[in-house]
Amino acid sequence: MRIDTTVSSLLSLFAIATATPLDKRQSTVTQVYKFTGSPLKAEGIAVRSNGQILVSFFDKGEAWLVDPPTKKATKVATFTDTTCSAAIAEVAPDVFAVVAGKYSNSNTPGSWGVWKVDFSDGGATPKTTLVKKVPESGMWNGLTAFKNDTVLVGDATKGAVFKVNVNTGEYSVAIEDSTMKPSGGMPMGIDGIRYANGSIYYTNIFANKFYKLAVDADGKKTGSPTQIWGNQMADDMYVSPEGVAYVAASSGIQRVTADGKVSTVASVRSGTAVTLGPDKSTLFVAGSDGAISSFKVPT
């Protein structure tokens, strides 16, 4: 999440000030594509099985497809009556759920919902449909696949996690926790969220914290959150089946092992989200500066 031009600039300066120097343990970062103009502020990212990259934007209610071999980008989805799109998750083969709503200098509560972008018929243009717009939504941003028909969505202003059925539109509040509540100068708390290995991993962006929380089969919490760190501004992430998290943070992409060891593995400054490519050895990063980057998974 990058809130506006002023905040984005401040975060960029903070990232430069706190970044650790590139060393031999860090992976080489390659720029795959650079968005300029509008849309610009890449916010969510997913990679199709054919290697094309689906990107959403905090400054536009749209999704674009980047083709790395040709270095071309094409708009493939417009989310009606929105100005902002956020996290993306694959919910079925070549079918993606995307969060979108209205944010333009200020948030519009009740404008947020989940859309499906469906490439499964094999055509060049996906079918885009609204799953559900939720009037109780505060400000949705993070989204993760949970079950075959269900996603979990982080509500940054309410400090809660919603559960949404992507086939029926049925929804409910699954989790409320004090660690998800807004903190600091901006009224926004939980940001990035990922489900893996029976737990959700999530950031509280302006509290500079990263947590892990065990959940049950209904998405309800089964214990208390474990704080992994409390000193870095961070956004969205990828979590491997082994429980290793790669988090877009102020000091670069942070690798967090299952036992809580943290290291900077790639020097990406304005990262907002991280995802794994189909080769299982490459991570892709969306950036609020418009850059789409990649680097090899550290061995």
From TrEMBL:
Keywords: Signal. Residues 1-19 form the signal peptide. PANTHER family: NHL REPEAT-CONTAINING PROTEIN (PTHR42060:SF1), NHL REPEAT-CONTAINING PROTEIN-RELATED (PTHR42060). This is SMP-30/Gluconolactonase/LRE-like region domain-containing protein. It comes from Pseudopithomyces chartarum.
